[in-house]
Amino acid sequence: MLLLRHRSILTEHPVFSRTHPCERERRWALVDLSEVNTPSVFGPAQGTSAAEHLSPSFPERAAWGTAGKLRAWQAEALEAYFVHEPRDFLAAATPGAGKTTFALRLAAELRARRTIDRITVVAPTEHLKNQWADAAARAGIRLDPMFKNADRSYGSHYHGVVVTYAQVAARAALHKQLTESSRTLVILDEIHHGGDALSWGDAIREAFGPATRRLSLTGTPFRSDTSPIPFVSYLPDKQGIRMSQSDYAYGYGRALADGVVRPVMFMVYAGHMKWRTRAGDEMEAKLGEGNTKDITSQAWRTALEPSGQWIPSVLRAANSRLTEVRHGIPDAGGLVIATDQTTARAYAVILEDICGEPVTIVLSDEKEASDRIDEFSKNTRRWMVAVRMVSEGVDVPRLAVGVYATSAATPLYFAQAIGRFVRARRRGETASIFLPNVPGLLSLANALELERDHALDRSNREDGDDGMYNPEDAMVAAANKEDKASDDLGQDDVTWQALDSQATFDMVMFDGDEFGELAEPGTDEEFDFIGIPGLLEPEQVSELLRQRQSRQSKRSTDRRKDPVSGEIAPLEPPPLYRTLKEQRTLLSSLVGMWSKLANEPHGMIHSELRRLCGGPAVAQASVTQLQMRIDLLRRRLGRS
């Protein structure tokens, strides 16, 4: 269970409320004047700013950051650090906020004060090693991203190294030796990876236990499990559950208000799905209906199959959206996040046919893949397709449109994926993410602005269903009781087969509101929403979405007008059912009524309904299939 919480160290240190802004600026000015620039084997010693272009800015100044200044939060975090100069410091800042710049500025400050001599950066992936080294070089710090465990030591012309968590886990004793050889600052990028495996956590503790200073960074300060994260403090909350403690927190909500990150529009697509199960049953369901998790997962899997029509329709819509965005941002790029290599290649073929230009494909965390990401970040190609590889920390600022076409559904992965699109380069940019209408994903999209800490314990409370269903049909009760599924989409089921998938535009989610109604792909109703200009302030986006929704509603009303009388036909009444449980109960009741009239057992009636309407038994049937049986029985009862 994830518990939501926000904590900022600034509220816990009275010095921040007592210190006048001018005094804070004077303090930084004194620090800058104390830089020592004596020559050495490394060239000029690094000052506190690591490079002249990284001068500080403060909260009282404009929050919008530029290349020439630290952002307000970065200066706040630095100031928070130097209140006590702790050995361990955890900074949790939303993806795209600029954690790397903050960390390098802090590293330069500690070197200038002679607190540390060497720097070790630990990153999650090989690609991020190069990215860290490049960023450090721009700040005047030389880090070796090519260091291998077999090298055993690195050249004195470097200020430090960049390694991966896996590299440290492979030879923890070597990295402990390197850490002890100098006064070392260890920067643990995306520290939650330290809990990926017990052996990793133990290795990181062994290797960096002797470090002079440790700076832990994360954009998503929580995990989906209870594995403890090294060098992170946990304190019990009111319920006694141990929660991770950030020393400085800068969440998406505040970053959005500061203009540091882009707001996100979620373009949600539903649709009708058909597939064949391992048992040979043909299933039908619509994305977004109140189905069981199993049925929802299989419908979702069907939607992602490149052989159907759902993915091509969504990719065409996303490409149209990207075209609109590029009118205002000429180099804007798009990213499709795929589940596996086979579907990624298939998506790339579809996209190349749609946009008429080559698509960059990134399939694994290798040098070739890293080079492809770098190349894409520097060119102006429209699309890149990746298999769960473009994740946390990967910096491609021109990404503005995304298609979430993966089966991954954990809060951690979702936050990391969306983080690839929120890095702002100018005011007025908005990210557009295309999502399937899957309840779990929509909940994560709605909770994007909430900040989470890592819970080390689980709650003892169980939220279960009340189990009160029609006692006449035991399999209905059993089906409702077993309404659960795993997070994956059953990819190991080799006999499963997607039969058909159709997409419909459902709605736009933006700033806590929902806009739009169901519309067919390629229609004016759809384009009203995906064709919104790419450079608008958030208030303008909301206003335009309201206008488009009003126009769509008027079109719907006009279609219902009688051409002769001008009267508007009433909308179809909403169905009685609202949930799958209610449908099962209603079907069971109708079966009972027909049983009394026809003097037939329930089991025979259910078998006849399956023969006429198709689909599996009640326990496995979808909302669509149950409704077909309900409608058939209602017609029979109406004639009797």
UniProtKB/TrEMBL annotation:
Annotated keywords: ATP-binding, Helicase, Hydrolase, Nucleotide-binding
Domain of life of the organism encoding this protein: Bacteria
GO cellular component: cytosol
Keyword Lipoprotein: no
UniProt biased composition (Basic and acidic residues): 555-564
GO molecular function per UniProt: ATP binding; DNA binding; helicase activity; hydrolase activity
SMART domains linked to this entry: DEXDc
InterPro entries for the chain: Helicase/UvrB_N (IPR006935), Helicase_ATP-bd (IPR014001), Helicase_Restrict-Modif_Enz (IPR050742), P-loop_NTPase (IPR027417)
Region ranges (Disordered): 543-574
Sequence ranges assigned to domain Helicase ATP-binding in this UniProt record: 80-239
Protein name: DEAD/DEAH box helicase
Gene source species: Cryobacterium gelidum
